[in-house]
Amino acid sequence: MGSANELGHASDALLARLRMFCFPGGEDRGRSVSAVRTREEGEIRASLGARWIPFRADQVIEARRSSFRWEARYQGGRIGWITVTDAYEEGHGRLMVKLGGVIPVERVRGPEVDKGELQRYLASFVLCPSMLLNHPSLGLRAFGPHSLQVRDRSDPTGATLDVEINVEGCPTACRANRPRMVGNHSVLTPWSASGAQFEEREGLCVPSRLEVSWGLAEGSFTYYRSQVVSFEAMH
């Protein structure tokens, strides 16, 4: 284990490399961003043997506080179309599923949801890198030679996220032990999210494709993949 000074220098170096990658036009443009709004088109599935279901989702990710809202719509087969809201707002996470966008069929809240949704927010920095500059309680420290551990210092759940960074400064993967609902219970499960095809949009270098997986006993289970079809930096 390195000394505090060594870890501090490593954290500074990794963060500087990450910032250079995320803000190709300079950090001033990133500091002016309060949030980003994205639209994704992709597909999602509930289990390894389940079919992929197409969806379209709109999301707002805030840069100055831990907050996001992801709202998706997809066909639910014979039961009609379904809307899903995944969010972390005002210090709490929630997952809500509605039939026809009106009738609630599932609502999940609680401390484990708070933790899991905050971890999802932390991983969203790849789409909203301005939080690296603007979020006052975001904490980052070196966690190995090529990874940073990220947390919100004001969070009571102890949620953390590990970010892998390559030699160019690109965040290649985000990993965490994240609560996963199994029936009525929550089980801590390895989780990973990655981006691909990074490109500059409004002064920020962000991915055009996203993929998310659970690490199950039977192997890696990719349950989410999408393309970012629109991106707006909000000032």
Helix and strand layout, with pairings?
Layout: H1 4-22, H2 27-31, E1 35-44, E2 53-62, E3 68-75, E4 81-89, E5 92-99, E6 103-108, H3 111-123, H4 131-134, E7 138-142, E8 147-152, E9 161-165, E10 171-182, E11 185-201, E12 204-216, E13 219-234
Antiparallel strand pairs: 1-2, 1-13, 2-3, 3-4, 4-5, 5-6, 7-8, 8-9, 9-10, 10-11, 11-12, 12-13
Summarize the structure.
Helices cover 17% and strands 53% of the residues. It has helices spanning 4-22, 27-31, 111-123, 131-134, and strands at residues 35-44, 53-62, 68-75, 81-89, 92-99, 103-108, 138-142, 147-152, 161-165, 171-182, 185-201, 204-216, 219-234. It has a single domain (4-234), classed as outer membrane lipoprotein receptor (LolB), chain A (Clam).
Structural description of this entry:
- The protein has one domain: outer membrane lipoprotein receptor (LolB), chain A (Clam).
- The mean pLDDT is 93.
- It has helices spanning 4-22, 27-31, 111-123, 131-134, and strands at 35-44, 53-62, 68-75, 81-89, 92-99, 103-108, 138-142, 147-152, 161-165, 171-182, 185-201, 204-216, 219-234.
- With 235 residues, it is of the alpha+beta class.
- A hairpin with a 3-residue loop joins strand 5 and strand 6.
- A 13-stranded antiparallel β-sheet has the order 6-5-4-3-2-1-13-12-11-10-9-8-7, covered by helices on one side.
- It contains 4 helices and 13 strands.
